[in-house]
Amino acid sequence: MQNIAILMGGISKEKEISIKSAQTIRKYIDQKKYCAYEVLCVDKNKFFVVIETKKIPVDLNDFSFMIKRKRIKLEKVFMMIHGVPGENGELCTYFESIDIPYTSCNEKISKLTFNKFQCNKYLKKLGYTVPEARIYIKNMEINFPCIIKPSSTGSSFGISKINNKKDLPKLLQNAKQYGDEIIIEEFIQGKEVTCGLFKFGKNIKILPITEIISENEIFDYDAKYNGKSIEKTPADITNSMKKKIEDISRKIYNQLTLSGVVRIDFIIKHNKPYLIEINTVPGFSEESIVPKMLKCAGIDIKTFISTQIDSL
Length: 312
Hints:
There is one protein chain. 28% of the residues lie in helices and 30% in strands. It is α+β, with helices and mostly antiparallel strands.
């Protein structure tokens, strides 16, 4: 059986969410095919295999560890680190240097997609519709309402809708907790949806689109993790809009040479889908969107996990 590292943790605010995602993978992985180990990343040069209450150090020379006087070499990585240093691609060079394949995108693409501002700027050059956005500088002219958010974080940390100049200092301070580069983005009033997709053999499998209905003004951290949103799968959209979003998502997956399961977020306004961001290591806890998409599609989670590992 192959020894699989389910990589979790990291050094961002998303650490706890990452651990929950890894635990879901561990729960559903096919134990007849794989020996799976939860591997905690505490920084890009330090990993521990977590077995019950024990934390066993990983040898960086070959990504192996010792247990009961036996050395076990981890052969493949199931990437479940949301944020730094997994989702932003910092670990890619290391894994490639020791010939260990991983389920996420390569370093170049991970770095691009993790920076929301640079990614959307690039997508706009390719001809996709994205909200207008600028990097915040002091005393810049701002049109309200708008969205304020860090350029490189996930799980909706630090994102707010800002309605007037009076609220700017407080919400700017909130966003700066999660990064120094802050985006001021056009507020798009519309229906928020997200499209999940992954490579299935040589083809791209598109999952049922999910509609996100937030009790708050936007789908922020509070709405996402404190039960203040409804996630409706499949989304209540027309067949033509469904096809349009699927076509855009498939095209982006191919153009950017994405890998693994990816979630692409949109807001639909006046029958036009605005691309908001690309999530290359989306959440996989029991409450997360992708597992619900898989369930709606009739895809067994165990089978899905096996397709990801076997494709490496």
